[in-house]
Amino acid sequence: MYLLRMTKRPGHAHSTSEPILMQTFDASGIDKEYQFYDEEAARVSQKIDEELKRDWVRRKDAQRRQVKVMLLGQAESGKSTLQKQFQLYYAHHALDHERPLWRPVVYFNILKAVRMILDELDHELNNLSSDDSVEGQAVAHSLAPLGDLSEEFSRLRTKLVPLVAMEDSLASELSGGVAVTGGRTGVYVRAGWQALVTPLSPNRSRALPGTGGLSPAVAQVTSLASRTLIAVQNEVDELWKHPAVRILLNNRRIRLDESAPFFLDSIKRVAQPDYLPSTADLLNVRLQTLGVAEHSFDIELCGSRYNWLMYDVGGARGQRHAWVPYFDDATAIIFLAPISAFDQYLEEDPRTNRVDDSLQLFTAICSNKLLKNSHLVLMLNKTDLLRKKLEAGVKVRKYITSYGDRPNTYADVSEYFRAHFIQVHRRHDISRRALYVHFTSMLDIRATQDIIVNVGEAIIRSHIAKTGLA
Predict the structure, then answer these.
(1) pLDDT single digits (tens) 208-260
(2) What are the C-alpha distances in Å from 145 to residues 121, 139, 141, 243?
(3) Helix 167-175 and helix 216-231, axial crossing angle in degrees, nearest 10
(4) Of 234, 235, 225, 265, residue with least CA distance to 155
(5) Are 291 and 319 in contact (CB under 8 A)?
(6) Other CB atoms closer than 10 Å to residue 378's CB: what's the count?
């Protein structure tokens, strides 16, 4: 090897015309050393390349085994309950771990129900005498044998004021500062709300011991709610079972959340110092999610493991824009339509019937180009509530005029709604894909989990066929 050395004459500036003297020496030892370094560098580089290639293959395989499922539908259609059913079947240990966190949410559902009953009682009893409608007169006639109820309900209200007064503070702690415009009250949480109400140890990996799984602020208000509920459980039970309340409920003068009857019927069980929510409690509890919540769990099929990513999205009209970024690579769409809601209207638009809104939303899903390759499942949900309404004599034609004079039976009504959704799919589905339709009641654990197994396997088999994993 040669080294270049430049010389210059003393006292003179260096000139490019001056000769460059080259000196030789023995570099054989250095050549061998450089050769060793070159071989070592090549070996390390090759090893890095091979590891990167293996990592790429692993990530590619993991991606191919990732099944992305979106739960779509309007608010209160049952999306979160379906997500819990999937979690109960495929990842029940995680759901068991969350049970203590749902305790304050159950309390909130009860507090809200009690407050709604008291408010509606005041309104109905104060205005019933001036209601000249046929329905109003019928209710007044039914209440007449009960006599003057003002003193009795005044006593119950006085006893229940401390309980009702806690509703806003409990909602505020559970919501973690999340506010909803329009003056609506309630618990509105974003994805990961469990972490926000759970205190973590310094290593940020688990809840602090002795807290019951709840952060200090939430634990404090939950404890107070528990003690208050235990103290007034008899009054809550008396209010709920009062003949006047039953008359107003049966005549649809009091409307409660769908979960309210379940928890008010269970007040003696819930109002215990060591209360821990049951599986039925978790499925019945009402909690409105804002934004998009991701849930992940593994599913095994034919000896292979697949990572199931389920996205539970907020269904209110103002939140539906958040769905679009998740459409592009969705493996499947499970659309939930609550057919029991034929007599209800959107909270954000009281002029729009909820079944009509579901049909419009389903039309948009079927015609969306981003979803043309997604497996499509339709769940006509809340059939249990539909049966109860029809058995109570609620007429479908009163709310949906196109139903006409068809029989007001479950078989006829459910088939009528099914035919309308199928017609939407036939007219508007841009990829002519198959539509899988199921009648569901998310509170029926056994029946729902049978459907979950069938739906899950169908989605994964479709995914296998598309990705070439078979």
Answers:
(1) 333 345 678 888 999 999 999 999 999 999 999 999 999 999 888 888 999 99
(2) 17, 11, 8, 10
(3) 150
(4) 235
(5) yes
(6) 25
